[in-house]
Structure to design on (386 residues):
């Protein structure tokens, strides 16, 4: 994220006025600047949000009480709905059971930050310093936003269950081999996901069976994908025999198709794998923030093997496992209520900070967003613990 101003005469004059020793003039300039820059900050914030592709925005006017009729937004036949949401920033996301006739209220909260600079930087028209202060303000709000958004998603994923063929299964599985991610795991996970994404009557949905559109992984898991360009991907040996050290290196050893290996070699970032977009998050990975959070949500749940769907005796370890999350971003199952300013229409509010006395010789701003997050259905998300 980078904020940079064009040094036009009008901008320079406004910045200089914010640092004026005339308190009334400085306050008026700060207010004008905040009103002008708030919509731009809102655009930057929206573009940088790592969950924007999963949550559908439901804008509402500031000071309104946002709600929605649950039955129209959740395609579930049982007559009741599980809704995951967090009561406050950093709060524990909970699972609320709602009747289909309910008007569901969003629990909204404020996420904000404040920054200030010495007035002399404004008087000297040091635009890069002003830009850096605003950049850090937006970054801090974004950090809080992403943590709140992912906590709701991860709590929903950890607690999700679905019945397929009379068997109730969670949405998180263990890889066939501990600490190894294979093409067979990838294949099995896709098959389960297609079963998961059935229509509301349990059959084939309009448009065909659902499939994942994105896979969210850590840098270390992305390394495992790149290694498929030069590692064998067998799960059986020649003529269908069990794979062993005696035949693993034979002429029948299978690697990825040449075109796929070339694509992996030519693209260091591996943005796509078998038609699924790969999204890299630094917060995923052993002992990283989101995995530690997920471990708290899923606890000591026995993870079934992805290959057999039978109990594995393995539980999720934040420090020992890698979490691979797959989602169908085309599904409307996660929503964000976000307040928009009645005057500017911006989702990001910015105000001049009036807490400073004249002798402090500082100019500052405070701003942020008001939002609420809910997940109404979990059929769009599953995961594999590697």
């Amino acid at each position: 994220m980078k904020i940079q101003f064009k040094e036009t005469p009008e901008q320079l004059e406004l910045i200089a006025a914010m640092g004026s020793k005339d308190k009334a003039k400085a306050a008026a300039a700060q207010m004008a600047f905040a009103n002008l820059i708030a919509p731009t900050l809102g655009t930057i914030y929206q573009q940088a949000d790592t969950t924007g592709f999963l949550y559908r925005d439901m804008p509402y006017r500031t000071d309104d009480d946002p709600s929605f009729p649950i039955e129209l937004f959740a395609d579930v036949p049982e007559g009741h709905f599980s809704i995951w949401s967090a009561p406050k920033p950093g709060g524990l996301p909970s699972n609320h059971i709602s009747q289909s006739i309910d008007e569901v209220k969003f629990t909204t909260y404020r996420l904000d930050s404040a920054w200030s600079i010495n007035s002399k930087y404004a008087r000297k028209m040091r635009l890069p310093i002003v830009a850096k202060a605003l950049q850090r303000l937006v970054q801090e709000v974004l950090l809080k936003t992403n943590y709140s958004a992912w906590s709701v998603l991860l709590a929903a994923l950890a607690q999700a269950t679905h019945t397929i063929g009379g068997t109730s299964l969670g949405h998180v599985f263990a890889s066939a081999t501990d600490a190894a991610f294979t093409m067979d795991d990838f294949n099995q996970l896709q098959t389960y996901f297609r079963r998961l994404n059935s229509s509301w009557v349990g059959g084939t949905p309009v448009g065909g069976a659902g499939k994942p559109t994105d896979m969210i992984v850590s840098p270390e898991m992305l390394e495992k994908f790149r290694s498929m360009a030069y590692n064998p991907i067998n799960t059986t040996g020649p003529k269908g025999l069990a794979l062993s050290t005696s035949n693993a290196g034979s002429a029948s050893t299978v690697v990825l198709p040449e075109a796929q290996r070339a694509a992996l070699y030519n693209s260091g970032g591996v943005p796509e794998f078998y038609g699924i977009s790969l999204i890299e998050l630094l917060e995923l990975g052993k002992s990283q923030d989101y995995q530690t959070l997920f471990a708290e949500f899923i606890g000591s749940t026995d993870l079934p093997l992805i290959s057999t769907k039978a109990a594995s005796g393995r539980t999720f370890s934040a420090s020992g496992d890698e979490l691979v999350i797959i989602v169908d971003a085309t599904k409307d199952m996660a929503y964000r209520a976000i307040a928009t300013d009645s005057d500017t229409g911006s989702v990001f509010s910015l105000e001049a900070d009036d807490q400073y006395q004249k002798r402090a010789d500082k100019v500052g701003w405070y701003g942020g967003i008001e939002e609420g997050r809910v997940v109404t259905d979990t059929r769009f998300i599953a995961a594999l613990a590697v």
User: Anything to note?
Assistant: The chain is about 30% helix and 25% strand. The mean pLDDT is 81. The longest strand covers residues 362-375.
